[in-house]
Design a protein that fits this description.
Elements lengths: L3 H13 L4 H10 L1 E5 L4 E3 L7 E7 L2 E6 L5 E7 L4 E2 L2 H6 L6 E4 L3 E7 H8 L3 H27 L2 H11 L9 H8 L3 H13 L1
Antiparallel strand pairs: 1-8, 2-7, 3-6, 3-8, 4-5, 4-7
Helix pairs in contact: 7-8
Length: 196
């Protein structure tokens, strides 16, 4: 009998790939429920990550901290998204990223090496890996072009589009950090948009 969490995972996998029943059963055996309280870390910079996660409920923030202690938000992961410090995971190197829960978060997590073994034995997992890589690449390219080409107001509108409903759940300084602006500038942009 599948739990509600595993049913949710399978539904998302089926929205991405053609998943045979026997492979669905195999993957459900890999994932275990894992909970984080608000403020807990899924990955800390310096850790060599070993797991991939799937967000059942809650929000995670992926960010960097420079030598002076300044934080730079890379992205957010909310319900129904996969989360990992991907580069560090693939290269088996220490992560440069922190991944932290912004609210109480429930995940399904799997050991990445066990997932790799599974994915070598059926084409559906290779299709999934390709799909996830494409999603991440598109997200990364959009983010880079926005930071290089768009003004803060356009970046803010893009954030609202990419993360619908998240604005009311996360702190203003985290949104500002993601946009590459100060919280004061973010307040000003919000004020301008309200007055139109």
């Amino acid at each position: 009998m599948l739990t509600q969490e595993l049913t949710q995972l399978i539904a998302i996998l089926r929205s991405l790939i053609n998943l045979p029943e026997d492979e669905a059963i195999k993957v459900t055996n890999l994932f275990k429920i894992y909970t984080l309280e608000q403020g807990d870390f899924f990955v800390c910079a310096g850790d060599v990550p070993k797991t991939i996660g799937f967000v059942i409920s809650g929000i995670l923030r992926l960010y960097y901290v420079d030598r002076d202690g300044n934080e730079y938000t890379k992205s957010f992961c909310a319900e129904n998204s996969f989360v990992a410090a991907y580069s560090a995971l693939l290269l088996q190197q220490p992560s440069r990223l922190f991944i932290q829960a912004l609210e109480d978060t429930k995940l399904l997590i799997a050991d990445y090496s066990a997932y790799r073994v599974l994915s070598e034995n059926h084409v559906c997992w290779q299709a999934l890996n390709c799909k996830i890589a494409e999603i991440l690449f598109i997200k990364k390219e959009k983010r880079e072009s926005a930071l290089l080409l768009d003004n803060a107001k356009i970046r803010y509108l893009s954030f609202q589009e990419e993360y619908p409903g998240l604005e009311t759940r996360i702190r203003q300084h985290h949104i500002a950090s993601y946009l590459g602006i100060t919280p004061v500038s973010l307040s000003r942009i919000r004020g301008q948009l309200k007055s139109h």
